[in-house]
Amino acid sequence: MRANLVQLSAVDLHPLAAELREALVQRVGEEKHSKSFPLYDWQRISYAFGRIPRGDSLLEVGPGKRYLTQMLAKSRRYQRQAAIDIVDHTGKMPKQVEFRQMSVAELDFPDKSFDTVLCMEVLEHLDTPLLQPAIDHLRRVCRGRLIMSVPYLEPLPLPSYHLQRFDTARVLEMFPHATMTVLFKEPVTRVPWLLLEERFDR
N or C: where does the chain have the smaller number of CB atoms within 10 Å of the terminal CB? Predict the structure, then answer.
């Protein structure tokens, strides 16, 4: 498998990430914040932020702690910024973000609705019957760039909160046209992430 290799410890935090992280550390303290969202997670979203192109519209699937959501909102890169999750984030999003509660396997948007679709650390949580429909929907609603990330070569047995494992053979089968980047954590014995990027004609 051909993939770019990135050591996250060498990735500088984007200024928006550094600003947001500092505000959170000031609120709860360095130790508590680092346990809930380690530095390599900030480096991961900083790297991903750098891969997200400008455009008219973006859909974020599974915003989690909403840190990347806030960075995107502050950057004003998109006229329309939408997010979906099975968890209700109503009232917790930046005011310009259009949030809808729904499953990625049942995306209720027309074909080619978004210039960019972002789905990071979501696919590994899906039951097997939902996995391929979810990927099909992500591709369907995207007219520009689809950016996804998953844990890569996670050892067995999987933790209880992960339902899917992505090894090389499975990745090549499911994402044959994707550009791939392995994001290594520090220390390297930790499970890396695999960033997958697919491009579509507008």
Answer: C
Q: List the one residue out of 157, 152, 161 whose CA is nearest residue 184.
A: 152
pTM to 2 decimal places: 0.95
Neighbours of 154 (CB within 10 A): 17
CATH of the domain at 173: 3.40.50.150
* CA–CA separation, 46 and 50 (whole Å): 6
d(CA 125, CA 49): 22
Q: How far apart are CA 68 and CA 168, in angstroms?
A: 27
- Could you tell me the two tokens for 75? 């950057």
Residue type, 189: T
What band does 2 get if pLDDT is binned at 50, 70 and 90? confident
Residue 105 near residue 137 (C-beta atoms within 8 A): yes
Q: Which domain holds residue 35?
A: 4-199
Q: Are 137 and 106 within 8 A, CB to CB?
A: yes
Instruction: Answer whether residue 85 shows pLDDT above 60.
Output: yes
For 201, the 3-state DSSP assignment is coil
- Split into its structural domains, the chain has a count of 1
